Amino acid sequence: MVAKKIKMIITVFLCFVFSQKFGDEDVDIINLGENVFSVVISPREKKANELITKRYSDSELLEITRAKMNMMEFAKTYPMECIRRDNQNLGYRVTYFGKNGIAKIDFNSDGIKYWCHGVVKEPKERREFDNVRPGLWDYEDVMALDPFGDFTVFYTSYIPKRLFSYHCTSDGYLITIEYDSYGVVIKIDCELL
Questions:
Q1: Sheet holding 163-168, edge to edge
Q2: Which is more confidently placed, 70 or 2?
Q3: How many CA atoms lie within 13 A of 58 on its CB side?
Q4: One domain, residues 138 and 160
Q5: What is the tens place of the pLDDT at every residue in 59-118?
Q6: Is 110 found in the same domain as 188?
Q7: Angstrom distance (rounded) from CA 124 to CA 115
Q8: Which residue among 121, 137, 159 closes a domain?
């Protein structure tokens, strides 16, 4: 019992210490039960295509999207060269590049995989989304522009109040497009993958 308390105190201390910035590296610590895993966040000023050196085959990329592992197991099997915190700082986004596509895997703050946008085939460049205008475009227009984007929410029986589509670009960006309840574009966000 005492040993468990000491281990917990040490884990909490390490989480606090390592979640701070060290030099040029931004590091988080994730407690995965018996294991502690350190996550080095990729530099904000570098795009995914500048960070990622390994390109996977199409079959390997598909394997990555289907893998059911926590973040530490993923890192052992598929080296993580581009890790970002998600927009709300609730988890992490890891990007993998293939020869003909991109895979984006989302992990929660506990390092558990909770979403994968599948393999984005034939990704567009960011500039190809420059003509998308709130109020003038709808989801069908966006789908015609990027048929391999993630429009999952449009195909579910549950329709949330806010509709989104996600688009990974070949030049290292994630474009999030928000729609009103009629499917008309109301907002476009662009961030590094």
A1: 163-168, 173-179, 185-192
A2: 70
A3: 4
A4: yes
A5: 898 899 888 888 888 888 999 999 988 766 678 889 999 888 888 888 888 888 887 766
A6: no
A7: 21
A8: 121
Domain count, the chain: 2
Tokens read off for 166: 């996600």
Do 26 and 116 belong together in one domain? yes
**Both structure tokens of 179:** 């729609």
Residue 94: which of 164, 174, 18 has the closest Cα? 174
CATH number at residue 144: 3.30.1450
| Contact criterion met (CB below 8 Å) for 127 and 142 | no
Domain end marker among 93, 121, 149: 121
Bridge partners (DSSP) of residue 185 are 179
More confident residue, 1 or 142: 142
The parent domain of residue 89 ranges over 2-121
Q: Which two tokens stand for residue 45?
A: 């000023």
The three-state DSSP-derived secondary structure of the chain is: CHHHHHHHHHHHHHHHHHCCEECCEEEEEEEECCEEEEEEECCCCCCHHHHCCCEECHHHHHHHHHCCCEHHHHHHHCCCCCEEECCCCCEEEEEEEECCEEEEEEEECCCEEEEEEEEEECCCCHHHHCCCCCCCCEHHHHHHHCCCCECHHHHCCCCCCCEEEEEECCCCEEEEEEECCCCEEEEEEEEEC
| Position 143 confidence tier, pLDDT thresholds 50, 70, 90 | very high
Q: Are residues 106 and 137 in the same domain?
A: no
Same domain? 53 vs 66: yes
